[in-house]
Amino acid sequence: MSDFRVVDTTVVQKVRTTRTAGRLGRVAGGMAEVGRHVSFAGRVIVTLPTAVIRYRKQVLREVVDVGFGSNSILAGGGTVGIVLAMTAVAAVMVGVETYRGLDLIGLTTLSGMLSAMANTRELAPVVASIALAAKVGTGFTAKLGAMRISDEIDALDSMSVPTIPYLAGVRLVATMICIVPLYAIGLVATYIATRVVVVYVNGGSAGTYDYFFHITLGPEDVAYSLIKAVVFAAVIVLVHCSYGYHASGGPEGVGRAAGRALRTSILAIGFIDIVLTFALWGLVPEVPALGIT
I need a surface site. Which of 32, 120, 128, 215 has the fewest CB within 10 A? Predict the structure, then answer.
């Protein structure tokens, strides 16, 4: 019996050691992957001047691709259409729930104030960024991943073409150029959609809505909102390009990379959104025009 106990104890110890080694290996692998993506992002940022100076034509081509897609607006929708549609639909729901909630306590006159705050500070930058990740980011991952598994990136390296600025840098510059007009379209769409729901669908007072909307919304809020959108766009491009650049495992690996990149970028948007909201507007929100803190 003692021999059996010794053997049993030895087996249990081996199993535990194997499990512990497996966990440590997974943790080490995860940290290595994070380091690889962070290193890639740093290299892209450092080589941005090269992308702007040497690859201007590629930047212009990517600007068209990011803004309108590779096909026509009617056929492919383009990023403009996706951002416009998603922000407008989300703003409609904000208008519906805002009016219903305020109607329960008899404060529907404040619909304009909540529209100015919610759409500008949270809804528009987050929804526009998710649309950008789904439409543009996944396209970047697929394109770079296809180039990686077909050895095109290795071929560029063999020809002494700096692949980081040529493939990722130009896409980051193009996205930074496009994000301002794209986001402006999405932000205006949220304002219009919410106002239509509150005023024309629910029968709210147009004058009261506009009054509270305009005294609540200031240029500072719009500037902070744009900062959030620009930061989100940069993170999306860096994450998706990194996953595509390091893709492996054939077409199936490219598909997995696109899925992981989308999940990572959405989680990053949520976390960075919280940090930027507190950093830009403070822990306690304020509406100076109404004396509300």
Answer: 32
- Angle, helices 78-104 vs 56-68, to 10°: value is 50
- pTM (2 d.p.): 0.85
Distance CA 208, CA 111 (A): 9
Q: What is the DSSP letter of 110?
A: G
- Which amino acid does the sequence have at 256? R
Q: Which residue has the tokens 């991943």?
A: 145
CB distance 272 to 231 below 8 Å:
yes
Does residue 75 form part of some domain? yes
Q: What is the pLDDT of residues 170-207, one digit of tens each?
A: 999 999 999 999 899 999 999 999 999 988 988 888 88
* CB-based contact 241:44 (threshold 8 Å): yes
Asked if 211 contacts 110 with a C-beta cutoff of 8 angstroms, the reply is: no
* 1 inside domain: no
Question: Residue 196: which domain range?
Answer: 36-290
